[in-house]
Structure formats: C-alpha cells, structure tokens
Design goal:
By secondary structure, this protein is of the alpha+beta class. Among the domains are: 282 residues, Beta-galactosidase, Chain A, domain 5; 82 residues. It is 43% helix and 25% strand. The chain contains 17 helices and 23 strands. Strands 8, 9, 10, 11, 12, 14, 15, 17, 18 and 21 form a ten-stranded antiparallel β-sheet that branches. Strands 5-13-20-19-16 form a five-stranded antiparallel β-sheet. Helix 13 packs antiparallel against helix 14. It is elongated, with a radius of gyration of 34 Å. The relative contact order is 0.07.
C-alpha cells in the first residue's frame, strides 16, 4: 500500500482527533462521577438527618457490658484476667523495634528500622493491623474455654542475657485458689536479627490443654508496601515446609491448603517482606487459608494458619515457637538454615531451572558490583549487564559469524529465487543444498539466541525479588523496583496502562534498531510476513514491559546499546567478509557427507515435491 503526503496528513489529523475525543470523554466522565458522588452524599446526609433519634450511647454501653460478662464467665479460673487495660511494652535491637501487648501477651507490631514506607520517611510496620493475632484456647474450668488473645497478662522486666539477646516475659496466673495453673509467654530477641523466639510455659498443663494438643491460630495481614498493589499481589505467595519439602502457592491461584504431615513453618511473602511462624518440633497438622481484600483497601492478603502442636506430658510443659517479621532478603533468610530462602523467587515452578543461575552467578555478581558502585544500584545494574554481555560474547560472535556467512550467500539465494519463482518446494531443496555445499548452518544464528533464554528468565525473577532495588533511585526513576512513570496520561489505555515508562521506550527503540539491523544481514525473504518480523517483538515489549520494574527495562536498554556496539565492532573490525567468502568456496571443494537427519529431510522434501507435481499435473 502506498501513502502520499495528503494521506499521511489525514491519518495524522485523524489520530489527533481520536486522542482528543478520548481525552474529552475521560474528563466528562470524571466530572459526571464527581457530580454523582456529590449528589449521593447530599441524599445520604438528608436521609441520615431524617432518621429517628436512637440512644446509641445506651445501646453501646449495654453491648460492652454484655461482652464483659461473657468474657468474665468464659475466663473461669482466670476471671480477673478477663478485664484490664492494654499496656504496650517495646524491645529493640539493631534491626527492629518489637512492640508487645499485655492483652494476649502477643506481638502488637514490628517496626523495621532499615526499611521505609513507600513515599514516606517512616519505617515499615509489619503485623500492625487489628486482624493480626496469635491465639489458642485454654481450658478455664468445667466446660469452659477462653482464647488467650482475650486475657490480660502481667508483664515482667526485660532481661539482657550474656549473649546480648533480650528476654521479656508475660505471666497469666489463675485467680482461683483451688487451681494453681499459669501460663507464661517468654519472648527472646537476638542482636541483629529479625526472628522473635517464643517459649510457652504451662503450669498444670494437663488441665489447661486437652489431649496434649495446642490449637494455635496465627493471623497475618500483609499491607500494601509498594506503589502498585496489583503487581504486589501478583508477586505475593504463601509458603511452607511440610514433611521436609518446600512448597508455595501464589495467592491468586487458590485460597486454602490442608496439612496432614509435620509442618516446620508457614509464612506469607509479599514482594519484599515476609511474615512467618515456625515450631521447633514442627506442627503435627493444620490448615492455611487466605483471602484477597479489594485493592482500594490497601491490603495485599489476609492469611490464617490454624495449626496443631503437641504439648509434652507432665504437670509443667513448654513448647517453643518463633516468628519472623522482616525483609524477604535471600541472604538474611538463608542464614536461618530452615528453608526460608526458598520463598524468595529466584526461579520457581516451571522456571526452577534458572534458580541455580541466579543463586550462583547473578546474585553474587550483582552483590559485588553493588559494593563496587558504592550503593549506586543503577550503575551496579549497568556493570552487571556488561558482565553478562562479556559472558555470552562467544555466543554473540557465533551468531554474527553465522549472519555474515548467510549474507555472503545472498547473491546465490537471489539467483535461486529468480530461477524457481513460486516453486517454494524446489527453492527450499536447492537452498538447503547450497547451505550444505558452503558449510553454512542456517540455524547458526538462532541457537546462540535460544541459549540466552535462561538468562532472560533468571533476570526477570531476580529483578522482581531483589530487595536492594526497592526505593533505589536512578536518573528519573525514583524506585527501580517499580516502573518509571515520568509521563502520566490521566487515563488508562487497555493493555498499556496510564503512564509511559521512558526506560521501556528506550529499550523498545533500541530493540527495534537491533531487529532491523539483524534483518539486513539475513538473506532476502520472499515471505512478506518476514518483513514485519523486526517490529513484532519491540511492539510486544512496548506493551508488556511498560509496567515492569524500571531496573529490568534499564537493563535491557543498556544491554541493547552494548549489543549495537558489539555488532558494529564485530561486523566491521573482527569478521573478515572476504575471508568468509573464500572459506565458503573452499568448503565447496571438500567432499560432503550427509547426516541421517539431512538425508531424511531431503527425502521428505523430494516426496513432497513429487506429490505436488502430481497434483499440478492432475489439475491440468
């Protein structure tokens, strides 16, 4: 199809009109929604004002009183602990501040000192919402049970141990003179650590716990910590080790998992942070389920683990647990030697094959360059890119050499095309014969490219899980773990988003230049579709990569620039085209031996050609 100047001008004006129309429609819709919301607010206010007056304070007081009576009755031996005022006690180390509540003697929230909330100078808080809870039922009398989370404990003084760890205890003592039962929660925090040890000590355990089994319930809500809650949900998982084997589920795939064997730990990993509960002797069985709140709530997932724990026999018994609330950092989690590090997505599921590449090559090299670049993550990524390009340079050279050989055969391929015209069968047979005589492998340029696919998948996983990228700024990107968005549209484009990533635009442009240049080195294509091949991947990349981490699109931008430089140097200063042509002529003089695969291929082509000739003859 040919376009003159007027046609191009017309299409340009039409595009501007469409853009203006969609923008105007979007603004009108926004104004309509605003007016509708205001109208609804007025109507709700009028309806609220017309409601009959109710003594809500009296009703509320009655409900509180009834609840108080219920809790006191259920508390039985611990009736005095059913009422009280919540007190908060905090313990700190170099990594975190842990705030405990006397109500339930549990963790109120954990504040991470080295990590900041998105867009704010405030430290990250984990397990901070009311949904977060740790509890289990106690037998408090004849046919009575009470959840530990509703009882008020008495805090004890914090003790600093010889190893630098800190221990704080909370005690629950029976208020009934006929029963001497007691419960102690003893928490231990180590220096420079994110784990919180918990020892539950039970006095008169035979009466407090039925059948020597403790039914623990751990609830954890992962709040939104990144700019894009949808992308954060896509990269959030629940994980566990059951019967010594690690397993995980992405939260959108299902909502519950049952355990029938011994479980060491269960946890929830949102993209860069991890919350988990583990038992020293393992949980005997249990269930983990989770729900996905609406994106507007600002919560990623709410998970509930109902686990069974065996309590040793005897009047006095103790069980040991631990909690982890901290970063999903591969290096930190690996040192615990309990499989925590497997929850970090360095290659999972069908991409497990790239995990060793990340563990033993990408991660150590990136850490080295991160130190070399003095914490400049953008520069570290550029150095990592240079390293990878040098590492695969033999493959790159092999690919370009194959391309140069194919280019040398262009004139002869053109003659074959002129000779056979529309007869693609004969053309294919003669072209294969030409390649064999010249000693050229037509797949020589494809195989090196296929060998680079594992690197692509490895880096995709790495840039989605490396916590060092979080909040790291570089050039116009304020957070390398999220997409850069210097250009905002104010409206969403399907499959593209409401922004334009500049790094993605640069990566797309350089990919298109590489594709066009590579096509120029290939033999002339008779298939019209091949003319559009250079544009398919870049266009796909423009849409698919627009909402991916800017670290990934920055990597591809640098990689493409290096590829263009390598292509220019190799094609113009390393590869000797005259020598290649001479080598091809020399290869033609050598005796040729066909492989079994080549023989079968030629036989198939000959049979197909014979069949086609017979069909043509029949038609005539």
């Amino acid at each position: 199809m040919n376009f003159d100047r007027n046609s191009l001008l017309g299409f340009g004006l039409l595009a501007i009109l469409f853009f203006g129309y969609f923008y105007y429609t979007n603004q009108e819709q926004a104004a309509y929604n605003k007016a509708k919301a205001r109208q609804q607010f007025v109507q709700d206010s009028i309806a609220k004002a017309n409601r009959p007056l109710v003594d809500t304070v009296a009703i509320q007081n009655d409900l509180v009183k009834a609840d108080s009576v219920r809790r006191t009755s259920a508390a039985g031996f611990f009736a005095q602990a059913a009422q009280g005022v919540e007190e908060l006690v905090s313990v700190e180390n170099e990594k975190m501040k842990v705030v405990f509540s006397t109500k339930g003697a549990q963790i109120k929230y954990v504040e991470l000192k080295e990590h900041r909330q998105h867009g704010k100078p405030l430290p990250i808080k984990l397990a901070a919402e009311s949904f977060n809870q740790f509890t289990y039922p106690l037998n408090t009398g004849l046919n009575r049970t009470a959840p530990i989370a509703e009882l008020f404990f008495t805090p004890q003084a914090t003790v600093v141990n010889a190893d630098g760890s800190q221990t704080i205890s909370f005690k629950l003592q029976s208020s009934d003179s006929s029963f001497a039962g007691a419960v102690i929660h003893q928490y231990t925090i180590l220096p420079n650590d994110y784990r919180i040890g918990l020892r539950i000590e039970l006095t008169d355990a035979e009466q407090l716990v039925a059948d020597h089994r403790l039914s623990l319930v751990w609830q954890y809500e992962a709040l939104k910590q990144e700019s894009d809650v949808k992308y954060e949900k896509q990269n959030t998982q629940v994980g566990f080790i059951e019967d010594g084997q690690f397993d995980y589920f992405t939260i959108g795939n299902r909502s519950t998992v049952d355990f029938s064997k011994v479980v060491n730990w269960v946890g929830v990993r949102q993209r860069f942070f991890f919350g988990a509960i583990s038992a020293t002797n393992g949980f005997t069985n249990g269930q983990l389920n989770w729900t996905l709140p609406a994106d507007s709530i600002g919560s990623v997932v709410r998970a509930t683990a109902a686990m069974k724990l065996t309590v040793p026999q005897g009047d006095k018994a103790a069980v040991d647990l631990s909690f982890y609330y901290g970063p999903s950092d591969y290096h930190i989690l690996k040192k615990y030697d309990n499989g925590f590090e497997k929850i970090v997505n360095l290659g999972q599921g069908v991409y497990t094959f790239v995990r060793p590449l990340n563990q033993y090559v990408i991660v150590p090299i990136f850490d080295f360059f991160k130190r070399t670049a003095a914490g400049n993550i953008g520069l570290a990524i550029a150095l990592l890119t240079l390293f990878i390009r040098l590492l695969i340079s033999p493959l790159t050279y092999s690919s370009y050499l194959s391309g140069a050989k194919m280019k040398a055969l262009r004139p002869e391929i053109a003659k074959l095309r002129e000779k056979f015209g529309e007869d693609q069968q004969a053309m294919s047979m003669e072209q294969m014969k030409l390649f064999r005589e010249a000693g050229v492998n037509p797949l020589g340029g494809c195989i090196p490219a296929l060998l680079q696919i594992p690197i692509f998948f490895a880096l995709f996983s790495f840039f989605n899980s490396e916590i060092a990228l979080r909040g790291a700024s570089f050039l116009w990107s304020t957070d390398l773990s999220a997409y850069d968005a210097p250009i905002r549209f104010g409206f969403a484009i399907p499959l593209f988003g409401d922004h334009l990533s500049l790094f993605n635009l640069l990566a797309t442009a350089t990919s298109m230049i590489i594709s066009i240049y590579s096509m120029s080195l290939s033999p002339d294509q008779s298939n019209p579709m091949m003319k559009y091949m250079p544009y398919i991947f870049p266009v796909f990349m423009l849409f698919f990569f627009n909402s991916l981490p800017s670290a990934l699109t920055w990597y591809y931008t640098v990689s493409n620039i290096m590829t263009l430089g390598l292509q220019f140097v190799i094609q113009n200063y390393i590869i000797n085209h005259d020598k290649i042509l001479a080598q091809i002529q020399e290869n033609r003089k050598k005796p040729k031996s066909k492989s079994k695969w080549q023989e079968r291929l030629e036989q198939m082509q000959a049979q197909q050609k014979k069949l086609k000739d017979m069909q043509d003859k029949t038609k005539r």
